[in-house]
Structures are given as structure tokens and as C-alpha cells.
Design brief:
Layout (H helix, E strand, L loop, with lengths): L1 E7 L11 E8 L2 H10 L7 E4 L5 E2 L4 E8 L4 E6 L2 E7 L4 H10 L15 H7 L2 E2 L2 E2 L4 E8 L5 E5 L20 E11 L11 H7 L7 H15 L7 E5 L5 E2 L1 H11 L5 E2 L5 E2 L2 H7 L6 E2 L2 E3 L6 E4 L5 H19 L8 E2 L1
Parallel strand pairs: 2-5, 3-5, 4-20
Antiparallel strand pairs: 1-2, 6-7, 7-12, 8-9, 10-11, 10-12, 13-19, 14-16, 15-16, 17-18, 18-19
Length: 337
């Protein structure tokens, strides 16, 4: 276990914000986590449960304790034609996807190359190319910060929806996730209908991809669209895609012509936030030391030595312009501290 005071978080957030926390604790097991919880005092609060720091924006130093999981381990169990893969919350998510692809465990391949740790998949309900973490998660194990007791949650109990779970709502900073179990399949059924997967496969002359080919193409697409955090600090997609009712969508079409969209449950429509931002002229533009990425308008970047307040000002300016032009409020996906 690691336990530091006045600790720099620069290496623990992909925006590269040079901030500190009052205390930083990294635990490697549930027992170590319980030990930490049992000794927490009022002076150690507030608490912040952090994973890989790929979905967070610090606007200032954190005057409290950061709890960071380093719980490792991956164990597969076969049952009823499926494979249940239990992973420690400190495992890197893309390492898990790579393991699945290499061992014929299918279902996670469309979520390739998403940064962050396993624990974050259960909090954020990460998603890409028609697949969300909630489609795979069957069980979550966690420790209650207040009592030190262990809890197990089913998928349904977490009330998953688009980029949301109870861990982002009423359970925020109440539980620390220690293990997540995913249900995978022995049968590969490629999901090709989202994004530009089909066109990219076509360029390679691939009509019926293997799972390895699917993963490689998705990685190539993501690398082409998203900046490397080691070069330009960023948290990937900064905003969630707004969901509007059909009447609102039809009004937009009447005013702006063809509007890209995806149908979702309840007759509602999801509109790409990146498209909305680009239509407002922000793609490739900057505001001070923060900017909108040149290849993907959904991504805000640290152009060099930006502070969290710089990125937040850019966020608010982009939100305001989208609201003025389209009458739609776009919301940050990242956790702003």
C-alpha cells in the first residue's frame, strides 16, 4: 500500500493538470482498502475515488484524500456456454480487451483502446461503436466507505443508462469498486453497423473480419481521431451526445437540413455533440491555452500549461454557442473537480 501526503496528481490525470491532493492512498487488496477506511478521520475528507484519471478535469488542488485502486487479477469461469471474467478494478481496461481477443472471448472488442481502469467501466458505463459496458457487466463488488463492509451489485441494481450509473449519482464516493465481472461469449458476432468500421474494413478488402481484425481497425480509427494525452493533454470525449425527442429533432432538420443522428429507446434521438460543436465553428479553435481538437470537435485539449480553469472556460463557451445555435444543452462527460 502507498500512502503519501501533499502528493502531485499530474501523472494521474490525462489532462496533465499540475495539481496536488492532501493525501493519496493506493491499495492493492480489499483488506488494505478496509484498513485505510478504518483509519480515515475528518481531516482526511473529502474523499475522491480515482481510477486512471482519463475522465477527470482538476480545476484546483484537491483538499482531501484520493483513493486509488491497484487491485489486479483476472479469472475466467465458464458456465452455460458463456465465460464470466472477474477483473480487479485496478486492471487497465484495454489490457482486458486485448486478453479477451487473444483468448477467443467475444463481446468487448468494440470497446478497444478506451483508456482507464476496469473500475471506471462500471462507473461511467463506457461505450463505443454500438456496445456499452452495461452490455457485459454482470456483477460489481465494492467496499462501503462508511462501514468497510462488502457489497455485491447486479447489473440491474446499478440502473445503467447512457454514460451513467448510480455510482455517478447517489452512490458517488460511497463505494469503492474492487472487482467487476463481465459476461463474454464463445461465439464471435461482429458489430459493424456503427461509425466507420465497415468503410475502414472495406479499404483493407475485409468483408468478414476476425475479432483481431475488428480490434485493430477500431484502434486505428480511435488513434486517427483522438490525440495522444502524452502530447496534448485531454480526457477523450469531453461531452456526452445529447438525446432529444423526435419533435425537437424534426425542428432541427427543418432548420438545418440533414442532421446526423442515432435512434434510441422511447422514440428519442441521439445527436453527435461533436457535430454540433463543429457547426458552431469551434473545431480546431482555441481559447487561451485550451483548444478544441483539430480532428475531433468532441475533444478539448491542453495546448500547453493550461490550467483546469482554462479548459472549463472553453467548455462553457462551447456549451453557450451550441445552446444559442441549436437550443440544445450539451453536458460534460468528464468529472470536473
Amino acid at each position: 500500500m502507498k500512502d503519501f501526503s501533499d502528493y502531485s496528481l499530474k501523472a494521474h490525470n490525462t489532462f496533465g493538470m499540475d495539481v496536488k491532493c492532501k493525501r493519496f492512498v493506493e491499495f492493492c487488496s480489499e483488506d488494505e482498502l478496509r484498513q485505510v477506511i478504518s483509519t480515515l478521520a475528518d481531516a482526511d475528507r473529502p474523499l475522491l475515488v480515482m481510477g486512471g484519471g482519463s475522465n477527470i478535469l482538476f480545476t484546483k488542488d484537491f483538499d482531501g484524500t484520493v483513493l486509488h485502486s491497484a487491485i489486479r487479477g483476472r479469472h475466467a469461469t465458464r458456465m452455460d456456454g458463456n465465460v464470466y471474467l472477474r477483473c480487479g478494478s485496478g486492471e487497465k481496461w484495454d489490457d482486458v480487451v486485448k486478453l479477451c481477443v487473444e483468448n477467443g472471448l467475444y463481446g468487448a472488442e468494440n470497446l478497444s483502446f478506451i483508456p482507464g481502469d476496469v473500475g471506471a467501466t462500471a462507473v461511467q458505463n463506457i461505450g463505443a461503436y454500438g456496445v456499452e459496458a452495461k452490455d457485459l457487466i454482470t456483477k460489481i463488488e465494492a467496499i462501503d466507505i462508511e462501514t468497510g463492509g462488502k457489497r455485491e451489485f447486479t447489473n440491474d441494481e446499478c440502473c445503467y443508462s447512457y454514460r451513467w450509473s448510480k455510482f455517478k449519482g447517489e452512490w458517488k464516493n460511497r463505494y469503492v469498486i474492487t472487482y467487476v465481472t463481465y459476461k463474454l461469449s464463445d461465439m464471435f458476432v461482429p458489430r459493424l453497423e456503427y461509425g466507420n468500421i465497415l468503410s475502414e474494413l472495406g479499404k483493407k478488402g475485409i468483408k468478414t473480419p476476425t475479432v483481431a481484425q475488428m480490434r485493430n481497425v477500431i484502434i486505428e480509427i480511435r488513434k486517427a481521431k483522438l490525440p495522444d494525452p502524452s502530447v496534448e493533454g485531454n480526457a477523450g470525449s469531453f461531452f456526452t451526445n445529447p438525446i432529444v425527442d423526435k419533435n425537437k429533432y424534426e425542428q432541427l432538420v427543418g432548420k438545418f437540413g440533414n442532421v446526423p443522428h442515432y435512434a434510441v429507446d422511447g422514440g428519442k434521438v441521439k445527436i453527435p455533440a461533436g457535430w454540433l460543436i463543429e457547426q458552431c465553428g469551434w473545431k480546431g479553435k482555441s481559447l487561451g491555452k485550451a483548444g478544441v481538437h483539430t480532428r475531433q470537435a468532441l475533444v478539448l485539449v491542453n495546448l500547453g500549461e493550461a490550467g483546469g480553469e482554462d479548459v472549463l472556460k472553453l467548455c462553457e463557451a462551447v456549451k453557450s454557442d451550441v445552446m444559442d445555435k441549436f437550443g440544445i444543452e450539451i453536458m460534460p462527460e468528464v468529472n470536473i473537480i
